[in-house]
Records
---
Amino acid sequence: MSAADPRPPEPNGEDPKRPGSVKRTPAAPEPSGVVTLVAHPMATVARQFVRSLVRPSTILYPYERLEDPRFRKEVKVASGAPIGVGDIWDNYRGVHALNIKTCISCNLCMFSCPDTCIEMVNVDTGDGKTKKCPEIDYGKCSFCGFCSDACPEGCLTMTSSYTITTQKRSEMVYSPERMYAVYRTKLPMNPIRLARPENEDRILLDEDLCIGCNACARDCPTKCITMIDIPKPTAKPGEKLPRRIWKEPMVNDEDCVRCGTCISVCPKECLYWGSHP
């Protein structure tokens, strides 16, 4: 409205001289009165209370737990279906379960962890021998599930257990024995990926660099590497043959779990990732 036009604006906030201008919504009135400040909130509380008598909207944790099969049969959602691990939380990522007996100490869980919360520690196998198994610090873990996806034997997986709260940070570190105890409780676990991608790289050998030291076959967790004899060439006059053991590693690709241990221990870096032509 211009200064020359003494007419006040319309009640709805629209300028009559400019059709199509923005309409301004009048401000809401301030709450006042007993009905607005007391009666409406009390009515809402009463309505929620009556609804809770028919279907509780809260769970009395820790006395009631969703993963308890008996409790899942009693609690219903709006659709009438029971809630719980078996119906909704099949892919829930909680505390890890470890089967120490099938662990091959391949270190893949530690290599794939983005939070560096996994450390390989010695575990007594009971026959006078030890092997390395993962130990997880849940103070650093982000529950991404990469470790269980990378486990080639399916011995490390994630369960539906979420009770890891504690008052001491040292108790957040789960040893292999502690995760083995979780495994024996038979909690629902995430499905294990067993299918191998078709385009996955393999272990290849640079024969010119190999010295036949047997380090790869010695440290392979699945014992899929075999040292085979190769013919020793005849030295020409004035030629000196390189110092080496005339053996070369042969990898059984079906048993290989792609842990990369052989590549990391090779002193000449003659083993590498690649694909066959």
Note: The domain at 67-194 is CATH 3.30.70.3270 (Alpha-Beta Plaits).
---
Amino acid sequence: MMKPSGRGVKIAVLGGIALFILLIFLFFSPALGLVKHHFTFLPYYGPKTANAPGDTTYFTVPPFAFTDENGHTVTDKTVAGRILVVDFFFTRCTTICPRMGAEMQQLQLKLDDPAYADVLFLSHTVDPEHDTAEVLNEYAQRLKADTTRWMFLTGTKHDLYLQGADGYFLASREDVMAPDGFLHSEMFVLVDKQRHIRGYYDGTKTADVDRLAGDIKMLLKEEKIKAKERRS
């Protein structure tokens, strides 16, 4: 029996390696659907109802209507189809608000790219009797806010406090015992395009706001994945 030549052995070995690589590529190819690539979605916050296996109704932020720093009405319909970053503050605050404003300003700059065109920032005052549209406009200018993306909202105390408590599960109210007379949360809230709450972040901590920026990227990717699944 003739033994294969050295060249023949090399060709056989190389052919085997090429075939192995091809099989690995085909096995892991998403187009074939042999292996499903998993993406970790952000959690949902708030009450939820399990209707059936794989069918859950998640809490949605209730409708609202407020006035922005330019005197324009902003409603849930105005911001429909946008990802929201929400917080509560007041312009005369001397405790956590300056830090929150600085962190939101840096987040706005960090996301100043067409890829984040669907992201809006909504800052609600808890001191509406003082924080008129004119006062909010001056405050926005001090923060160098791009008010096409970062809106400062006022309204009645009742509507603002109710939206904070029932809409975002945040403390937001008048309190004579609190510093400067008002109590509000330091948290930034991430809301997806379907008005589901997807994250809470400490707006006084740079590391937490950096995590928020990363989660916004994840949420945008999630939106693309879900849109592709709806089309398929």
Note: The chain has two domains: 1-37, 56-231.
